[in-house]
Amino acid sequence: MRDPPLVLVVDDVPDNVDILQMRLEAQGYEVATAADGEAGLAAIREKLPDLVLLDIQMPKMDGIEVVKAVKADETLPFTPVIMVTARADAKDVVAGIEAGGDDYLTKPVDQAALMARVRAMLRIKSLHDTVQAQSAELASFNTQLEERVEAQIKQIDRMGNLKRFLAPQLAELIVAQGDESILQTHRRDIVVVFCDMRGFTAFAETAEPEEVLELMDEYHSTLGPIVSEFEGTVGHFSGDGIMVLFNDPLPCPDAAPRSVKMGKAMREAVSVLQAGWRRRGREIGFGIGIAQGYATLGQVGFAERVDYTAIGTVCNLAARLCGEAKDGQILVSKRIATAVDGEARLEEIGDIALKGLNQAVAVYNVAAE
Q1: How high is the pLDDT of residue 257?
Q2: What is the DSSP code string of 183-246?
Q3: Predicted TM-score (pTM) of this structure
Q4: Which of 16, 102, 127, 283 has a Cα at 20 to 30 A from 56?
């Protein structure tokens, strides 16, 4: 509502208009006038007054027709209308109220009654405007809330997809930045860690399915948090075999030392599991292979299922080292050994001919402290 409020006086008698205008302006209201019903309706649509004082008996278009047109026009905001009649004719009053009028006055208009009616109608107008503004604000808030919820759902979906192969903190960083372009196919120098259990296949062939699932659950529940702790990227996950990548998709300046530290943490954690397995007659070992080199990385799969993986000789080398490792061994390539020299106690195994590689490879074992 305006400040001061705009009151429109519609009457075909100039003296009546002058009197009402003078009294209203004396109280600080802004006043507009119209000389007949048609002009009054046009003024209402043009000026959008806060209150209308509308004479009933007028030429061209009487007050009843005007108020009906105003109340039927959904494009107009709520506008209180006080019907003004020349006499206290019950039919005029009833007709005006039924047509949509909000109050009435009789001529000659009493000053006190006029101002009381005007103040009351303007209070109603102010309250109505406040409610409308609050409703619009609430609707806008609900729309924004729906948009935020939808965005958060999408973010959660993206986060869930990324957490399948990334440490939670890395997945959150990528989602927060809103840039998943780093997951597109690219080539990078990475560290690859392969680990799996020794004797698992033989165990799975003779054990009941429930026993196999129980052991797998213990194994994965133990190693999963360690991978996340060291911010590794899960590049492959199949049965008891796990491939973890470092220095991708986000750079990792200490990829080699970190991978070895993770391997040692894995070995220690699995040794605790092995003690329990042995008590139940399960002789299962655990080995790790670690290598560093260039690979091509990116997402593979289809719309409903996407994995992140690496392809290259370094992956084969890490896998072969893992396959060669005996229970409790962490076999690393020469490049890894050089990078962690002085940070881990290494045992030189010698050159080993690994399946799928043309030349023998220098191999080292990360000894237990």
Answers
A1: 96
A2: GSSEEEEEEEEEEEEETHHHHHHHS-HHHHHHHHHHHHHHHHHHHHHTT-EEEEEETTEEEEEE
A3: 0.58
A4: 127
Tokens, residue 189: 């120098």
At residue 300, the pLDDT reads 76
Helix (H, G, I), strand (E, B) or coil at 365: strand
Contact 289, 319 (CB under 8 A): yes
Token pair belonging to 76: 């107009």
Which class for 141: exposed (0-12), middle (13-18), buried (19 or more C-beta within 10 A)?
exposed
Q: Are 45 and 73 in contact (CB under 8 A)?
A: yes
Taking CA atoms, 245 is separated from 209, 268, 308, 352, in Å, by 30, 20, 10, 23
The DSSP-derived string for 87-129 is S--HHHHHHHHHHT--EEEESSPPHHHHHHHHHHHHHHHHHHH
pLDDT of residue 98: 87
Query: What average pLDDT is seen over the chain?
Result: 88
- Contact (Cβ atoms closer than 8 angstroms) between residue 134 and residue 196: no
Q: Which of 127-141, 142-156, 355-369 has the lowest mean pLDDT?
A: 142-156
**Is the model more confident about 302 or about 56?**
56
Cβ contacts of 203-210, under 8 Å, gap ≥ 24: 203/282, 203/284, 207/282
Total Cβ atoms within 10 A of residue 306: 14
d(CA 97, CA 80): 12
d(CA 219, CA 285): 12
What mean pLDDT is predicted for residues 169-184?
65
1 vs 354: which has the higher pLDDT: 354
Segment holding 33, helix H or strand E: strand 30-34
Buried b (16+ CB within 10 A) or exposed e, 64-81: bebbebbbeeeeeeebbb
